[in-house]
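User: I'm writing a short report section on ligand binding and want a predicted complex to refer to. Could you take this sequence and biotin and write out the structure as tokens? A short remark afterwards would be nice.
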Amino acid sequence: MFLGKNLFFVPECHSTNTLLADLAQKTNPIEGTLLITAKQTKGRGQRGNGWEAEPNQNLTFSFLVKPSFLAVADQFKLTMTVSLAVADYLCDRNLDSVKIKWPNDVMVNGKKISGILIENTLSGSQLQQCVVGIGLNVNQTVFSIESATSMKLITDDEFALDYELNFLLEKLEGRYLQLRAGKFAELERNYLDMLYWKGEEHLFLVGGDTRMGAIEGVDRIGKLKVRMGDETHFFGLKEIQFIK
Ligand code: BTN
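Assistant: Sure. The structure tokens for the complex follow:
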């Protein structure tokens, strides 16, 4: 396995994404380099949100990939790859109704169990290196937000973090190799099969208005395709919110 072969553990840090990005800039580590912490004090999420995880209870880590075979316009393929791998892992753990909430929140029974933050460095029109950060709620049972869950809350089991990390890395590496092999159609099909709310009528917030719509899929650059009445619309990350 190339993923995690070069592994750094820090007992505590602000954000594994930030620390790994610093390391990448200073030392140019090999692809697959992984940084994991037991206690992340300023975890970062998408849309400028934070990521909270109790120390020693969860997986909070980042790894480096160098997908120079991907054009910048295709970076959403990496998002699909990583979220699918986390979803695969949870399915293999026999968790029910695992879904991916666009673009890359992993949900179980309608609650968020994992968040992913991918930060890219570009080289012209190609991707140069990407820091992929994953937060997975494992043994934590108390959350400040109602919409979060964990593996323990769902199964009642306590998990060994080291063992789970290895298993998750196998899934991540498998999906990444699929991406590297150019198996885009298969990745997209698998991603769409897991897409939360796909084909169902739901309420969304769009430009301050609530609208009913049904998710149909994603386009090449990862915009969400939603049918609203007779029209089809495409939304970027900050342009739509899921209501109910
Ligand atoms: C989100 O759902 O908004 C994304 C959350 C990503 C959290 C992970 S935890 C490890 C890595 N380091 C960070 O600061 N963030 C990611």
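A remark for your report: Residues 14 and 42 are 4 Å apart (CA to CA). The first strand starts at residue 7 and ends at 13.
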